[in-house]
Amino acid sequence: MKKPSSKIREEIARLQDQLRAAETREAERIGRIALKAGLGEIEIEEAALQAAFEDIAGRFRGGKGASTGKKNAGDDRTGNGPSAALAPGADAGGPSEA
Question: What pTM did the predictor assign?
Answer without folding.
Answer: 0.54
